[in-house]
Amino acid sequence: MSLYTRLEQRLERNSDDAGPVRGSLSLLRIGMIWLAANLVVTTLLTGTLFVPGIDYGLAILLIIVGTLVGAVVLVTVGNIGTRTGLPTMALTRGPFGTRGSLLPVSANVVILMGWSWVQAMLAGIALDFLVASVTGFSNPVIWAVVCQTIVVILAIFGHEGIARIEPWLAGIMLAIMAFIFIAAFTTFTPAEFQAIPVDESIGYTPILVLDVVIATAISWTVLSADFNRFAKTSRAGIIGSGVGYSLSTIIAMSLGATAISYVVLSGGEAIPFDPVTIVEPFGWPLAVVIFTSVMATNTMVVYGMVTSVVNAVPGAKVKFLPTALILGLISIVGATFFGLLEQFTTFLVTIGALFAPVFAIMIVDYYLVKRGSYTREILNARGGRYWYRGGVNWLAVLAWVVGAVAVYLWTWVWPTPIGATIPGFVLTFVLYLLLSLRERAAHEAEPSEHLSREPVTTDA
């Protein structure tokens, strides 16, 4: 039996192909997976966008508030995965219909591919800095390809491989990050950080900062059910992902804001979203954090792309391993397109515009319209209550379009005093609920067989 065949059979036995899965991971293991996930270079570099656009103390406060707000959406969607055993994009069949769900699935795969490219590029730049400082050889494109190749190999081993490696990577990153924080605050006092003059010409306002932080949580919610479906219980999934995600985001973004502030206080040029700018003053420790974070996070991103495709069409029997190899190859090739780094903020806002409304619809549909349960018909390839009209729930599509357009307009055309993500989410939430009142009443009157993991696990 070939290595390929043995690996494919192992992945099938451990539920990395389509269908509901049985959760087995503890609260601590889920927490460590999410802790490692967002201790990532993109989150860290996002923190470098805020200072000196706003003052240091306010930036830290907004990072904390925005993270906690966004985490509510993340854990709420993730809990649907824990209760049903299905990944995030498979769950979109509930509100959007069997065929309609292909719209958010397609958008999700494209966006996750973009994430994987950006992170591989940043890892390549950090690794190139290390190699060049020792050998003089410099080629960030080559190192980006090397980093992404390692990521694809890790992702091929599925959720079990991720669960094993993430806690170790999280421990390494936290230790080095603690060293960097200590170095920063023993060189300059907190008062000196706070006294950095605000440069309004940068264009970041407190509201825009809050919106970007919330959009970061939205971008991670596309993977929330993918991993929380492996939690033993709802309690393990909710607390583990909530605490793990919140801590990692606050630590990583705060480190970015601190590092760029350190550069300013040292008299350097504060170039936002540039890994070399913050690596130079701290040297190899921060470069190691960036490299390690990409190994941890991009593995989850590639895995999320694969599960989205595998679960896109019920009954299609798309295999995990060949899908991972194909998407992995595309992600490796795309890691050479370094021009994407200049569009990161636009990319992040686009994610918020596309997916904040999707998650509002998913939450309304599962918890309010379907009253906390989906039937086994969600696994049907055709027909059943999730077929709607021709496989599409046009009411959900309408609510999504309205919400996405509103977020775009409130971001770029008519900025609101509270940003765009929150009002866009609320607008879509209310609109879809109103459009679905008739279905909600019909669902209450019809007894049905609820979908649950086998065997069913419940909290004590």
UniProtKB/TrEMBL annotation:
It holds the Pfam family Transp_cyt_pur. InterPro entries: CodB (IPR030191), Pur-cyt_permease (IPR001248), Pur-cyt_permease_Fcy2/21/22 (IPR026030). One of its GO terms (cellular component) is plasma membrane. It is found in: Membrane. Signal peptide: none annotated. GO terms for molecular function: cytosine transmembrane transporter activity. This is Purine-cytosine transporter. It comes from Agromyces binzhouensis. Keywords: Membrane, Transmembrane, Transmembrane helix, Transport. The chain crosses the membrane at residues 32-51, 57-81, 102-125, 137-157, 169-189, 201-223, 243-264, 284-306, 318-341, 347-369, 390-410, 416-435. It is a multi-pass membrane protein. Belongs to the purine-cytosine permease (2.A.39) family.
